[in-house]
Amino acid sequence: xxxxxxxxxxxxxxxxxxxxxxxxxxxxxxxxxxxxxxxxxxxxxxxxxxxxxxxxxxxxxxxxxxxxxxxxxxxxxxxxxxxxxxxxxxxxxxxxxxxxxxxxxxxxxxxxxxxxxxxxxxxxxxxxxxxxxxxxxxxxxxxxxxxxxxxxxxxxxxxxxxxxxxxxxxxxxxxxxxxxxxxxxxxxxxxxxxxxxxxxxxxxxxxxxxxxxxxxxxxxxxxxxxxxxxxxxxxxxxxxxxxxxxxxxxxxxxxxxxxxxxxxxxxxxxxxxxxxxxxxxxxxxxxxxxxxxxxxxxxxxxxxxxxxxxxxxxxxxxxxxxxxxxxxxxxxx
Length: 333
Known about the structure:
single chain; Severin; five-stranded mixed beta sheet; actin filament binding
C-alpha cells in the first residue's frame, strides 16, 4: 500500500484515503482501528460486546508505533490509544508524536491513553492508567502531614455540627388522643391540657385534661416527680376587656429521675411548640419553664403578660452642685 508523508496527514487526506466510510459509521458501530500511515490502515468492526483485552493487544506490533481507536461504554465516546514502543526507531516515534495532535483534532477524540509496550496496551494497563489519572497528585511529607491535619479538623467540625443538630430538637410522634386534646383546647371545649412523653414508646401522650376554674388550680395538677408540658387558656380581664391568653408551661421539678427523661423533654420542647403553633394553629402568648411549682399562680401569669411598672416613682431629682468660689447666689440691683 502507498504510504502518506506525515506533512500530508490532514483530515482531507484521511477522508480521501479510505476513511470516509469509517467516519460515516462512527455513530452507529463499535470499532477498533489501527492506522499506521497507510492509505486505508487496518479496520476491524467487532460487536459492541467485544472486550478491550481481546482486540487491542493483537493489533500492536513490536517496534511499530500506531494509533488505536476503541469505542468506550459511554455513547459516542472514543478512546485514542497512542502506542509508541520504547524500542521503536526514534524517527518513527518523532513522526507519530508530531502527528498525534492533528489526528486527535480530525477525529474529535474524547480520551487518550499512551502505551509504551505491549503489556501496557492491555485492559490491565488501561485500568492502571485510569487509577493513576484519578489519583491525587504526589505530595511531600510536609504536605501529607498538613492534609492529615486538615482532614482531622474537618471530621471534628462535622462531629460538633452533627451533635448540635441532634440536640437542637427531637420531634416525636403525637398520639391521636393528644392531637384531639390540642384541638379541644383550641375550640374552647377545655382550658387545660397536660401532655408528656411515653419514655418506652417515645411518643407524646395525654396525662390530664379538663376545665379549671382559675389559674391557681394549676399547682394541684402538676406532678411532683417528673417533667410535663402544660397548655392553659388563661381567661382574664385587662383594660375592661375579656382576654384569653394561651400559655405553654414546661415544668421540670427537682427529682432523681433518669437523665434520659430530662434530655427527652428538653429536646422535644421546641418541635412540640412548633407543631402547636404551626400545624394546630394555637397562638401561644407566653412560654414558661418552671422548676419551682410555687411560682405557678394567677398573679405570675398576669405579671408575664403585663409587667408591672412603678407609677408612683418620681423623676430623678438632680442634686445641687457645690458652691462656687464666688459663694452663694447674690442679689444684684
